[in-house]
Task: structure prediction
Amino acid sequence: MSTSPSEDTVRLAALADIHYSKSTPTSLQPLFMQIAESADVLVLCGDLTDYGLAEEARLLAKDLAQVKVPIVAVLGNHDYEADEQRQIVEILGEVGVFCGGFGRGALAAWGERIIKDFVHEAVQEALKLEAALARLSAPQRIVLLHYAPIAATVKGEPAEIYPFLGSSRLEDPLSRFDVTAVFHGHAHKGTPEGQTQTGIPVYNVSYPVLKANYTDRPPFRLFEVRPREKGDVTPIAGRRLARRASDHDVEGPAA
Ligand SMILES: [Fe+2]
Ligand SMILES: [Fe+2]
Result:
């Protein structure tokens, strides 16, 4: 782990939708090493694999094995595609990745489902999120989701598929528990930043979104979290958000 600028600061690197597959042309290992140099924690917001295959997870595990910072991940819809999610969690766990989350992703984005199931699924996920947040007593609550809790960060995607990209039902628990920041992926053509109605910053850290929007830097986002100060997360790279980060200057682009 590299040295943090201050003992009171944790540098968090966020990324999603890396979609590891057998046909992935190049390994992301150099990027992971770069992340390990600049951050204290790496968070991965789902779609770690492309077809949800254990062998894809093995390829990723190989690349993550050298990363010496703690890695926290949630799975995405692609990671459930082959019903090998347990093995994926196990394989990644062996190289030190902590896979949290609630099980099946909020909204089934593959194939069609009847509306009733669809809504039920979103409500259930919101309830689980709420229960998880209620168990936390910490000044900072950082939420990792695969799906978007607001529409702003999926903007750029065709409007017809918005319901498959997230659910505003996920927004209520975030506000109720005064979450500090939310990271998600899934919307590959979405928008990097938005905020909930109560001003909680929401970041779409999908790999394709970062590549398209931050062409001058490596495709991951870096944030400073001050664990002891309530509600304080500052993007180190990229535009800052009006509310939560208003007291802090952006500290230059990431390496
Ligand atoms: Fe994805
Ligand atoms: Fe996805």
Residues 17, 19, 47, 76, 78, 185-186, 188 surround fe (ii) ion (ligand 1) (CB under 6 Å). Residues 48 and 130 are 24 Å apart (CA to CA).
